[in-house]
Design goal:
CATH class: Mainly Beta
CATH architecture: Sandwich
Helix content: under 10%
Shape: globular
Radius of gyration: 14 Å
Strand order of the largest sheet: 4-3-6-7
Distance between the termini: 39 Å
Order of helices and strands: EEEEEEE
Structural class: mainly beta
Number of domains: 1
CATH topology: Immunoglobulin-like
Largest sheet: 4 strands, antiparallel
Strand content: over 45%
Length: 107
């Protein structure tokens, strides 16, 4: 199955096969915790972070080597002190590619 360039994937040309895919989180909006899923076509180093509107990293969900396939991580906002309600960005970076999704926290 060929993947298409979606969800703001950067570092690839339109029409190229995408090596990463950042899926929508669940639930949305987030009140206590959310599951974030991503797919990697090949194994490699993945860095999954949450950023506030100013661009500050508020949480690191994944930072390591992952094999090919789908991966699931949980953002438990009760563990991250001081995460207020608002809009956040989830960013997946793998090699020279990245994908970003918007997240809403509603406490």
């Amino acid at each position: 199955m060929g993947w298409t360039t979606i969800n703001e994937a950067q570092g690839v040309d339109d029409g190229a096969r995408v090596a990463i895919l950042l899926l929508d989180h669940s639930p949305n909006p987030i009140s206590t915790a959310a599951t974030v899923s991503f797919v990697m076509a090949a194994g490699g180093s993945a860095h999954l972070t949450i950023h506030d509107l100013s661009g500050r990293t508020v949480s690191t969900l994944a930072n390591g080597t992952y094999g090919p396939g789908m991966h699931h991580v949980t953002w438990d906002i009760s563990r991250d002190d001081g995460i207020p309600s608002g809009i956040y960005f989830c960013r997946l970076a793998v090699d020279a590619m990245s994908a970003t999704r918007t997240m809403v926290v509603a406490r």
